[in-house]
Structure formats: structure tokens, C-alpha cells
Amino acid sequence: MSKFTRHSSRIATVIAVPMAFMAAGVLVSTSSYAAFSDTSSNQQNSWRAGTVQLDDDDAGRALFTAGNARPGDGGTNCIAVTSTGSLASQVRLYADDVSGTAGLAEHLVLRIEQGTGGGYGTCEGFTPQSTVFDGRLSGFTGAHSSYGSGAPTWSPTGGASETRTFRITWKLADEAPNAVQGGTATTSFVWEAQNS
To answer: What CA–CA distance (Å, rounded) separates 87 from 52?
Structure first.
């Protein structure tokens, strides 16, 4: 026989229901007081990478296309190189796409000057400021074949356009031997900037 009577079940129910309501009230009361909060923010942060940018005024044309050169022949041309990047950088000059036959490059005298004034197709108004290279074409291509070994030119400060003009002069040496007859020499002059 059950220990609980119908009467004691009713008493237990009458006591349990109010106790449940009291427990729920305590929980609600506790959780509502735990909702204090505060925030502080720093909004709209943004980033943009700086730029290193070089252009020249040759419009994709070669500085020199010399054919049938004889000892003593030569030529001069200028090219203006402009930095428009936003970062300070170091510009270096080097040779690329180098090829040749019959040792002609060893007998081509090359002088590269840096200055202001003039531009592609005309050196009128050019004022030299420094000599970047003075020697044989083979010496230039052998010593300056990448940015790492490039000949230093100038250091743009960034944030404003800066232009330097380069006057390049070549001559087939007077003492060039018969062995270079029909020989060829080609190279690209590359100005590269890297941020400093």
C-alpha cells in the first residue's frame, strides 16, 4: 500500500507549484542584473598599399638601331625616365636580353650619363649631373645584369613625379679588329625601382 494518500499528494502539489514560481523569479532576477555592458569602438579603419611606378618616353622604340657600323662610327640619344610612385625608392639600371656575335660588344664604347632636360629623340637642353657608366658594352652587360647588380641612378622620394634624363652615347672603337666584321650586339636597357 502506498505511503502517500490522495490528501498528501494534493498538499505536495500545492507546495511545489509556488516553490517553482519562486525559483523561476530568482533566476530571472539574477539574469536581468547580469546584463550590464559597455562598448567602445574605433571605426572605419582602412589600408592601401603604396606604389612604385616608372615610365619612360620612348614609346616602345629602341634608342639605337645601328647597321653597317665602321670603326669610329657612333651615336647619341636621350631617354627621360619618370617616377610617379607614392613610396621612396631606389632606381637602378641594368642590361637584359643580351646577345651578340663575333665579340662586337667588347669593342663598343658606351657612356651613360644622368641629368635633366632633353628626352627621347633629342638631347637638346640636356644637363649632365653624373656618369652612370663609362666603358665597353660588354663590361656593362657583364657587371649589371639584374636589379641586385644594377648601376645606381637616383632615389625618388615618392609622393611627387620626378624625372631624370639619361644620355647614352656609343662608338665602335677605332681599333676594332677585322674579326668583328658582321658581328652583332643587342641589349635592352632596364630601369627598375624598388621601394626603400
So the answer is: 6
What percent of the chain is helix, strand and coil (3-state, nearest 5)? 20, 35, 45
Residue 117's CB is within 10 A of a number of other CB atoms, namely: 16
Cell digits for 98?
Answer: 643580351
Q: Are strands 54-56 and 108-116 parallel, antiparallel or unpaired?
A: unpaired
Residue 109's nearest CA partner among 161, 55, 66 is 66
Q: Which residue has the cell 516553490?
A: 19
Q: How far is CA 168 from CA 23, 94, 111, 112, 125, in A?
A: 94, 13, 6, 5, 15
What would the pLDDT profile of 67-115 be if each residue is shown by its tens digit?
999 999 999 999 999 999 999 999 999 999 999 999 999 999 999 999 9
| Angle at 63 (CA atoms; ends 58, 68), nearest 5 degrees | 150
Contact indicator for 180, 107 with CB cutoff of 8 Å: yes
Residues 6-34: pLDDT tens digits? 555 555 555 555 555 555 555 555 555 57
In this prediction, residue 11 carries a pLDDT of: 54
Cα gap 12→55, rounded to integer Å: 93
Give me the pLDDT at residue 5, please: 58
C-alpha cell at position 96: 637584359
Q: Which of 92, 139, 83 is nearest to 111 (CA)?
A: 139
Burial environment of residue 65 by CB neighbours within 10 A (0 to 12, 13 to 18, 19 or more) = exposed
